[in-house]
Amino acid sequence: MTKIHRNRTSLTMENQLMELIAEPSGEFKKFTRMSLEDFEYLLNKVSPVIMKRDTQLREAIPARVRLAVTLRFLASGDNYESLHFLFKISPQIISKIIPEVCLALNQVLKEEIKIPSTAEEWLDIENGFARKYPRAIGSIDGKHITLECPSNSGSEYYNYKKTFSIVLLALVDSSYNFIFADIGSQGRISDGGVFRNSLLWQKICTNALNIPEPNPLPGSNVDVPYVFLGDGAFALTDHVMKPYPGNHEYGSPKRIFNQALSRARVVVENTFGILVTKFRVFKKPFQLCPEKVSLITMTCILLHNYLRKSNTSLPIYTPPGTIDIYDNNDILTHPGTWRQELESNSAVRDLLHVPRRPASNAREIREEFTNYFFALSQQQNLP
Description:
Layout: H1 3-6, H2 10-22, H3 27-32, H4 36-50, H5 63-76, H6 80-87, H7 91-108, H8 119-129, E1 136-147, E2 164-172, E3 178-186, H9 191-196, H10 199-205, E4 215-216, E5 223-224, E6 227-229, E7 240-241, H11 253-278, H12 290-308, H13 314-317, E8 325-326, E9 332-334, H14 338-341, E10 348-350, H15 360-380
Parallel strand pairs: 1-6, 6-7
Antiparallel strand pairs: 1-2, 1-10, 2-3, 4-5, 8-9
Helix pairs in contact: 4-5, 4-7, 5-7, 6-7, 7-12, 11-15
């Protein structure tokens, strides 16, 4: 053992954390991205899973320290060598601690992300979107999570941007919470194919989501289905609305529709922005295998939802100004602070926008929404 490790004991490690907690300037909150109350709650939940026994050769690293190491790794993106100097734990042991604790966190927080299973639950989500886009039941987006070339993977994870990646497909509600996440598709799969291969698409095709029955928009007698809001990376379908491609004349129906859809689906852009800037493990491509990257990504998503719903951690995780602020006319007045913190070389990259020819019924549904938003804009401009 090196000298800095020989003088390490459970007591010294515990004292190091207690000094951080006792610091009145709130350093512990910055260190873990959460309140002490939530840290203790998570510690109580995961301790039975991550706790190790002492042996004759050495004392076990306390569960409290194991959790702190993992949360610091997720919050800072520091490599194992850097964490080694901070906690006096070897990089090899840290490389084992982090996946173990992430797996435990996934188990105890698995209920934090749950796709609705009843029509009433979908309608609760629709209420959050109704003012900007009626019949919307979520905003969908996908991202490439870039990583170093996995061993013996060939071109399986090689994507169109000439990097290696897995794909994260996520659905969020109007409160900036994830309600579905599909992680781990190989980067070589076409971006449109990611959605087609997802569990969400399978449930849509088999009517297993219990989405409410179609009904007319206000002022119309034509039934339209409840839809997810996507961008140009997704195909236009009965349940996925996307913008019209190209540029359109100011005040034209297509431009007004695109603006309405963009204002409503910006929620997913903010959600991903918060995730990437608060969990700085995403600040650069991962040097881990795809399985560990998938595990870490899901842990961050679950923690995001947990912290967003916590009264004590919400002001720490997303303080005022973090999210875009709009006025009563849906005009952006104050961009969220995450936009200034986002790094161009982060591990999270956009999907490719690929033109696709939609089915005629999907085009008719989009035209019905277009007519609604155009008529609404005409009414609002009346003297």
